[in-house]
Amino acid sequence: MADAVVEFLLNKLTEVGQWYADLITGAENDLHQLRNELGQCRSFLADAENKLKKEELFREIERQIREVVYDAEDTIDTCLTEASREKAKAQEKPKFMKFMRKTAQKANISLPSQVRSLREDKMKPVLESIDRYANLQISAALVARVEEGPAKAFELPSFTKDNVVGFEDEELNITNYILEPKDELDVISIIGMPGLGKTTLTWKIYESQKIKFNFPVRIWVYVSQVLNKRDVLLTILKEFTSQDMSGWNDHHLTLEVRKRLSGGKFLLFMDDVWSVKVWNIIKDVLPMNNKEGKVVITSRERHVGTHANPNRVPHQLRFLYDHESWRLLQLKVFGKQDGCPPRLKLTGEDIAKQCKGLPLAIVVIGGVLIDHYRRTRNLELVNEEWMEVQKNVGIHIVDNTNFNINEIVEMSYKRLPDYLRDCFLYLGVFPEDYEIPARTLTHLWIAEGFVKPEHKSLERTAEDSLRELIDRNLVMVEKLNPNDKVRTCRVHDVVRAFCITKATKDHELYQEIVKSKEGVFQPPVSDIPKYRRLCIHSYLPEILSKRQKGPRVRSLLSFNKAPVDLDAKDTPVIPDSFDLLRVLDSTSIKFNQFPEGLTKLMHLRYIAVSGDEIESLPKAISDLWNLQTLVVNTNSDFLKVEANIWMLSQLRHVITRAAIALAINGTGPAGENLQTLSRLSPDSCTDDVFKKACNLNKLGVRGKLATLFDGRKSLKKLGRLEKLKLVNDKPLSNRLYVFPEVEFFPSGLKRLTITGAYLDWKHMSKLAKINSLQVLKLKGKAFCGECWKGAGQGFRSLHYLLIQDADFAVWEATPDYFPSLKTLVLKNCKNLIDIPEGLTANLEVLDIDGVPETALKSAEEIKKRRGNNFKLILPSYDEVRLRWDRLWMVVNAQSGRMFTQRVAPKLALVQVDLPLDAFSPSWKPNKTSFLGPNKYWAEFWPGLEVRPDSGQAGDPNPFLVSSHLVMSAPGMNVLKIPLVEPRAVANGVSVWDWHGSAFDEGEEAATCIRNQARNICPWSRPQYQI
To answer: PANTHER family in the record, alphabetically (predicted)?
Structure first.
């Protein structure tokens, strides 16, 4: 943790010496001494890197090092900031430096004396502590990671089959793995995040009759705590003999265990194996040539399972489904899985859902709910108390006094190497349920100084750190890119709560500011001067309006799904209040234009801003010599960059969806570090630009692509370019008739996206000649024409192909045209008759949506022929999108799936039940698709009419058993709306085709839909595998 901070300051001192040599005149000797002392701190931290147990004295020294580094950084940056505020308008650098030096003196800031004082008052005590630590030889007492696991945090609960709810499919899969015949000893690993139920599930399998019948010898060993090989050996031998072997030495015990296990069938469960080295110790006693032996291990860390059996992919235990979570919660509260009274059902189901499928969280919250239930059997009062819990489920889980769930995550946290700890805790800066873009996360890690320079790029190192956290089951993958890199990720609410609790201790890492239900900020805004990093998600404009200064604040982070407007008078508050800011992500607020004042923040390394009409970047950005990442979210088509980016030597990423027009004749030494430039206008794609940005890895081009393909430009010089996006603006008027030959593209291009080019399919033969191409995405009529005939040289390396919004009807391709294709995605190809059989030889995944019935049938035929080795993904139903309006909320209007209608003066629910055939991809509503509510809904609205042809009471999912599409609402007659057309009218009621999401009223109806219809209508479209 502290070592990255030390490394960051050492690098900064080098940069200051390069850029501000005049300013540090007189301080060279003190800065040199400070460097040496920081080097001692780095060596001390490096020596302890591979030690697991670090005493309180070490942690205290680590804290002191962090504090002195922070103070040194603040001292240097404050001097530079004060100087820059008064800098002259003169543009010559020598004159600029002269003014900076004079300003520093005028402000009574003496860098030499400041550094000297800091070394004497703060660094010296730290070095003395390091010497005492060494003299006491505490390091010799540190226990290596292999020898000791984490300190025991809690007693495991007793395991019984009654405690297991759900996971029936997982139990079946794992049991089948165990019973599967092998030619040698088989090792099966089960991995998952803390609290997911790995131990509980494996105990259920261990105790099952099928396993007992097949394995008379079953052994259970819990190895999580201090590994004592001798105890493990004796535990195993107890299953074979009652003889007392405690007097035997380890060598004879090992031989005896290996002999006993070699004699026939056995099943050994090793629960909670923490490390590869621990597994290797266990492995030494196992008879690897016994093909009747089976070993099942559970672990939180993927690499343990991969190492234990390289030939078997570790089994990733899933989270509970919503209905399983609800069953488990009922079991914990009422003693049986269907014991909830109807009055508590809505609230209880929502609480279970908020646990996000984590069994441990459900058990903990169950303990809270059962207390309320036992105190009074008045269901109205119980429901009111449950609704209070419902508002803050996460807090009730984390702050539970009967069970400290943080200790479960703490065990994993203590196993993290120091270089991962800050990266992990930083995940708490994102809001609850936030889908975290991996690119944003890694860029922030780099800007914060958490990523140490290695023998590979900072980005690759950061990506590896994220992958390691995923492999340790602390971070969940949400979406993958076609190249299997993480696109987005999430953390469970329990993990996020741990990160926030740990990170905010002593204000070390960051502080989240929230508003209580009483309208009070916690912590108070007046405490802002204490913190170095601030997370303010929902109330940033309000807090900025208070104009509280934060002289120590280095990061200001605000993430929201929908940006809000910032009052123009509050725009200058950010640069005026946080003048040492290094990281600014203000994408949750909208600016009318790029805030000019941000260019005063000379220490900025990361800027992300939003504004619908941002059309230019000011010239003064050129002065932000620390800037690494610049993100501009704007709806403008064009972004004029008046700044000279070639003066920004640290710049690595420029990210926007607008077409970037670079300043003409911009000169400067920078460009070699630039890796991402998205998106560039074709006019700016010059040889001079590409010569400077020679190390680009990702490039986007947007505009009139004919300008790019005019024969005078080439991307060939970009030898490191792997990802290219080409967006043709105004495609109808800028349609492309020519396409460059293969020589136009860099030889190492791996991913290519083309949008709106309207090219003839014959030009695909040119793309096929890019031998390195692995991923190809064709969007928005990238190619057009009735027929695509794949002829000639095929795509030799292509493994992923997406075609979206194409108008072709006939597609011909031979088996050798796509010899490496693994994944094919077809979206909104409304004319396509069928899918070429020639594509399917090596195809593993076919994902289709918005294609004709004939294409669907051909896909299903392919699935029948290919069997279980082939995955066919079809839309089970359309995307479900909500929009609240003063008159309507409509869900899935195009296929008439679910509606609500405003009934003055309040919005009331209109119910829609679906017939079974509505789940067919080709289903369309007809004139008989209406009538009748059912008993399931009547439970929530007493007096609601129940028709005999509706679903039966007690049906687990009435939507799946209803024989009609029904539309009804409390207090209304049944609506008889034929849904044949996209818009229809019945009884004077119109059904509109609307999409979007905005909530302004009708929360009761929304809650009912969320709770009662979520099984068939979740808020993001699921996919199912045939």
So the answer is: DISEASE RESISTANCE PROTEIN RP (PTHR23155), DISEASE RESISTANCE PROTEIN RPP13-RELATED (PTHR23155:SF1193)
Q: What pLDDT, on the 0 to 100 scale, is given for residue 1004?
A: 42
Shared domain check, 372 and 250: no
The count of domains in the chain is 5
- pLDDT value at residue 154: 36
Cα–Cα distance for residue pair 843/823, rounded to 1 Å = 6
How far apart (Å, rounded) are the C-alpha atoms in residues 677 and 683? 14
CA 796/CA 453 separation, integer angstroms: 36
Both tokens assigned to 1009: 């839909």
Q: Establish if 841 belongs to a structural domain.
A: no
Using CA atoms, how far residue 788 sits from 491, 634, 757, 797, 807, in Å, is: 44, 36, 16, 20, 10
Q: What is the structure's pLDDT at 10?
A: 81
DSSP 3-state of 643: coil
pTM: 0.79
Domain final residue, candidates 587, 614, 641:
614
The phi and psi torsions of 636 (rounded to 5 degrees) equal: -65, 145
Strand pairing report for 1023-1025 and 888-891:
unpaired
377 forms beta bridges with none
Instruction: Check: CB of residue 332 under 8 Å from CB of residue 363.
Output: yes
Counting as low any pLDDT under 70, the low residues of the chain are 1-2, 17-27, 48-55, 83-110, 136-164, 224-226, 506-507, 561, 875-1026
- 804 vs 792: CA distance, rounded Å: 24
Residue range of the domain that includes 77: 1-95+103-137
Per-residue pLDDT at 92 = 47
Going by DSSP bridges, is the β-strand pair 871-875/845-849 parallel, antiparallel, or unpaired?
parallel
Residue type, 241: T
The sign one gets for the Cα dihedral 541, 543, 546, 548 is: negative
